[in-house]
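Protein: Acetylornithine aminotransferase
Species: Marinomonas pollencensis
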Amino acid sequence: MTEQVTRATFDEVMVPNYAPSAVIPVRGEGSRVWDKEGKEYIDFAGGIAVTALGHSHPTLVNVVREQAGQLWHLANVMTNEPALRLAKKLTEKTFADRVFFCNSGGEANEAAFKLARRYAFDHFGPEKNEIVAFNKSFHGRTLFTVSVGGQPKYKEGFEPTPGGIGHCDYNNIEQLKALISDKTCAVVMEPIQGEGGIIPADLEFAKQVRELCDQHKALLVFDEVQSGVGRTGTLFAYEQLGVTPDVLTSAKALGNGFPVGAMLATKDVAASLAIGTHGSTYGGNPMACAIAEAVVDIIDTPEVLNGVNKRHDLFVAGLTAINEKYHVFKDIRGMGLLVGAEVTDSFKGNAKAFLTEATKEGLFVLVAGADVVRFAPSLIIPEEDIAEGFVRLERAVAKVVADNKTA
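Structure follows.
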C-alpha cells in the first residue's frame, strides 16, 4: 500500500533549502497538470524551462519504455550507442566537435570552467587562470559555479569560495574592457540572462566580447542551460547573436525533465580534458541519451522552432493587453519562449505575488529575481492553452492590484 504524503511531509523529512507551494502535482499531459485534489493547472513555467515538449509526450514515453527494456546504465569504462548518436547529432548541428555528458546544468558548467582553466594551463601556463563573468548571472549551485555566478547571495555562508573570478555588468563593454587581461582564461556569459531578469545580450556587445576574447587569447563560454534546445527559437541562442563560442553548456530542456547535461567544445579546446582529468558516473548513460536524442529530433525542426517565435508573439500580446488594463509591468522582454515581465515600482521586490495568485487561479508561472515575472512554457504549448492561461493570469493580476490598493 502506498503511503499517503502531504505538503507537511516535506517539512518533516526534507532538507529545508526549498519552500515549495502547497500544490503537489500528480499527473501532467501536454501543458496541463493536475494536483492530488484533481485541480487542473496550465503550465507557463515548464519546470523552469525544462519540459520543452510538455508533460508525458507520447514519443518520449515510448523511448523511455523501449530503452528501459535494454540498457539503463553502463560505467564509463565503455561507451554506448545512444550517447554516441546524441553526441554526433549535437556536433553536426552546432559549432562543436566534441561533447561531454553529465547530469545537470551545474555539472555542465563545472566541466566548462575546469576545461577553461586546464586549456589555459596547457597552452599558456598556470598564471593564466582568471575567469570573467557578469553581475546577476547564474551558472549553478556547486561551489565553483556559484563563484562564477554574479549573485553574491548564493555564496554567503559558503566562503572561502574559489578565487580568480571577476564580474562586471552585463551588456557593459567598457567594464569588460577594464576587467579582462592576458591573465583571463575565459569569459562566461548567458546569451540571455535567465535568473538575472530575462535580459538578452545586445548584438554589438556579444560581438565585442568575442573580439576581446580573441585579443586576450581567452575562451568564450556560453551558458545555454536555460536558453538552449529551442527555447529562443533556434536550437541554440548563439545562432541569433552572430557569435560563436569556444565552449557551450546545455541541460534543462535537453532531457525534457530527465536529468542530462552536456558540455560542447571545439576539438582543440576539448583536448585539454585528457583521460582522467574529469568524469561523471552517470554522465552519458544510455537512458538519458536516448531521451535527449528524441528531444533534439523533435525540437530541431522548422515546425517547432517557427512555432516558438509565433508563440512568443502571443505571449507578448497577452502580457501587453493585461498591462494596458492594469499597468503593472514597466517592461516586457525576452527571446522565443523565455519571456520576462518586469513589474512597476509599485510592485518592486514583489513579483512573487503574481506567481502566488496565478497558482491559486490554476496557472504556473515563474519569477526571475524579485522584480520579474518569468514565462518558460512548453515550446509546443497549444494556442488554446495560451489563451486560457492569460484569462487566468488576468484574474491573478487583478487580485494583486486590488490587494496592493488595500494594503
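Remarks: The chain has two domains: 7-56+302-406, 71-299.
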